[in-house]
Amino acid sequence: MAGGNAIRGSRVGAGPMGEAERGDSAPRVVVQYWCANGHETRPSFAQDSGSPVPETWDCPRCGFPAGQDQANPPQPLRNEPYKTHLAYVKERRNDADGAVILEEALASLRARRLVP
Ligand SMILES: [Zn+2]
């Protein structure tokens, strides 16, 4: 059922930033997260919510999931809304053009010996 997977799209009200000075006495804990792109974010969570802080957090800069282990950030899921440049290109073109672009990209990578 629940498993240890990402809690996606968690948005707590208006966000953790603007609520720090509202005078509620709930203790807050600041947790550091890092995404696969090396971005760091530090949301804070109320400790009286009865649930632990989420294992992952959406990076506010690039939308990738961010984890608490800087050395081993979670990999983005395939169905994340984040789109690569190639995805944008393919949206504007038909599949044939997309295939050509993909081949060109692969050829470029092969030329740089990044892929076999
Ligand atoms: Zn990021």
UniProtKB/TrEMBL annotation:
InterPro entries per record: RbpA_sf, RNApol-bd_RbpA, Rubredoxin_Fe_BS
UniProt keyword terms in alphabetical order: Metal-binding, Transcription, Transcription regulation, Zinc
Oligomeric and partner information: Forms a complex with the RNAP catalytic core and with free principal sigma factors.
Task performed by this protein: Binds to RNA polymerase (RNAP), stimulating transcription from principal, but not alternative sigma factor promoters.
Organism listed in the record: Pseudokineococcus lusitanus
PROSITE patterns noted in UniProt: RUBREDOXIN (PS00202)
Coiled-coil boundaries: none
Gene3D superfamilies, sorted: RNA polymerase-binding protein A (2.20.28.270)
GO biological process: positive regulation of DNA-templated transcription
Protein name per its UniProtKB record: RNA polymerase-binding protein RbpA
Similarity remark: Belongs to the RNA polymerase-binding protein RbpA family.
Requisite cofactors: Zn(2+)
